[in-house]
């Protein structure tokens, strides 16, 4: 079994006023193992981005623990260690139009963090590093001097990926990295992420709002609904033996590649069920976890 790179324990991230909080993330726990891809899936507003942003410390968390490489991130105060966390954890964003400054060149975007982290000795070395990164994501050296607005959506997301790789991180949170791209380009970007993961031994938290592409990239999948993880398990287990009705509903929305079975596909709507205080996480099969009350779990199984 691989090592735990990241441990999230009872994470809560509330917004708004204490008397009327928006519980964006409401007590979730999961581990991410070194070298794996954990898919985090759920409809818009379920708390996926907030989870990612809390992990990279864009927020002061409301409660819980985030442990990276055995260290509790929120307890770390030394500048040197914070800098190291910033280097090790990177994020790729959904919208490559909004997340890249159009008035900066690809080279400038990619090399922004080089200086603070002392990653080059002179101008030549800096150019070489930029060139190597561009080539790693399927672009070429000559692209370094072009402005972000001159690239297509897919190319921009490649620049976003190069930027995320620029400091040699070990962990990348990809927040719906293909949702804004043409369907024809989505598979290319997923394949690129897979290739980079093999070459660089990267660990991914891959966020998506549906289960269609997640299947191809994830080793395990966590399903999020209303700030909670309602189901978590190996990708195969989630696909073949879903227990939570929300997971079943998400699965029923995935188109089948075979036209005959696609014609027979029936979408299962999810009827929101109120969960009372007795709901908890149940291990329904080895390493397959479902959130609910005892009675719900018995019914769903
Ligand atoms: N900075 C914020 N302030 C207030 N509410 C927020 C903030 N960020 C997210 N939310 C709310 O938290 C919930 C979860 O949002 P988000 O994490 O963006 O969901 P997802 O990424 O799954 O679509 C939503 O109801 C959203 O409106
Ligand atoms: Mg989001």
Helix content: 25-40%
Low-confidence stretches: none
Mean pLDDT: 94
The number of helices is: 11
Instruction: Please report the distance between the alpha carbons of the first and last residues.
Output: 28 Å
Bound ligands, named by name, code or SMILES? adenosine-5'-diphosphate, magnesium ion
**Number of strand segments:** 12
Tell me, briefly, the overall form: globular
- Say what the CATH topology of the domain at 4-101 and 171-180 and 202-300 is: Rossmann fold
Strand arrangement in the largest pleated sheet:
6-7-8-3-9-10-12-11
Note the beta-strand portion.
25-35%
The biggest sheet, with number of strands, parallel, antiparallel or mixed sense and barrel status, is:
8 strands, mixed
SSE order: EEEHEEHEHHHEHEHEEHHHEEH
CATH superfamily of the domain at 4-101 and 171-180 and 202-300: P-loop containing nucleotide triphosphate hydrolases
CATH class of the domain at 4-101 and 171-180 and 202-300: Alpha Beta
CATH hierarchy: architecture of the domain at 4-101 and 171-180 and 202-300: 3-Layer(aba) Sandwich
Structural class by sheet pairing and helices: alpha/beta
Gyration radius over CA: 20 Å
Could you outline the blueprint of secondary structure elements for this entry?
Elements: E1 4-17, E2 20-33, E3 37-41, H1 48-55, E4 63-68, E5 71-72, H2 79-88, E6 89-92, H3 106-111, H4 123-136, H5 153-165, E7 171-175, H6 183-200, E8 203-208, H7 214-217, E9 220-225, E10 228-234, H8 235-240, H9 245-252, H10 259-264, E11 280-285, E12 288-292, H11 294-300
Parallel strand pairs: 3-8, 3-9, 6-7, 7-8
Antiparallel strand pairs: 1-2, 1-4, 4-5, 9-10, 10-12, 11-12
Helix pairs in contact: 5-6
The structure holds adenosine-5'-diphosphate and magnesium ion.
Adenosine-5'-diphosphate is lined by residues 15, 22, 24, 42, 44-50.
